[in-house]
Amino acid sequence: MKPLRVAFGLSLAVLATLALGALHVSTPPDFFLLVVADMARGGAAVPAMLAGLPAGLLEDALTAPGRLLGLHAFSKILVGYLLATIGARTVVEKPVAVGSLLAGAVLVEAAALTFLVWVLTGDFLPPALWPLVARAATTGFLAGLLHAASRVPWKQRREARRRMRLT
Question: Are the beta carbons of 59 and 76 closer than 8 angstroms?
Fold first, then answer.
């Protein structure tokens, strides 16, 4: 069930990334990180890291084709491990806490990418501050919204509405 969930999440992440790219959105959320964070939710590090590999490779293929393939994959694996470790040691239930955690994960991933580019190419290229902050904020906001929506008992509400219509 989980591999299908990852595949479905990654295909939605690809579609959302392509759609926002076609709309010329300057700082889209990191949709691939949402898939990795979903796998890290229960504190299982290996599934989170295994979800980070294809997520990062797809992000590399979409955002910077042909240039150091695997940078995002490494950083997504690292962030997946960190999120799973935090998930195993703490209980993060509030949407604001989930959003803050994912916003911090975007910043950690940007730092890891900057360090990797610096080590591999010798060029220290820090990301622009305000687009990075905007990306972290939009990713955190979207993660908080999705977490809040996942806590709503949709099935029970639908059944209650159906019973009301039948009576």
Answer: yes
CA nearest to 137, candidates 14, 18, 26, 16: 26
Q: How far is CA 51 from CA 76, 81, 97, 111, in A?
A: 8, 10, 22, 20
pLDDT score at 3: 87
Domain encompassing residue 152: 2-166
Overall number of domains in the chain: 1
Sequence-distant (≥ 6) Cβ neighbours of residue 117 within 8 angstroms: 68, 71, 123, 124, 125
- pLDDT tens digit sequence for 32-71: 999 999 999 888 899 999 999 999 999 999 887 667 788 9
DSSP alpha helix (H) spans, 23-94: 31-39, 45-63, 71-89
| Nearest-5° Cα angle at 74, 27 to 38 | 65
Q: Where are the alpha helices (DSSP H) in the chain?
A: 2-22, 31-39, 45-63, 71-89, 95-121, 129-150, 154-166
| Minimum mean pLDDT range among 22-31, 34-43, 62-71, 141-150 | 62-71
pLDDT at 140 over 90: yes
Reading the block at residue 111, the tokens are: 């730092």
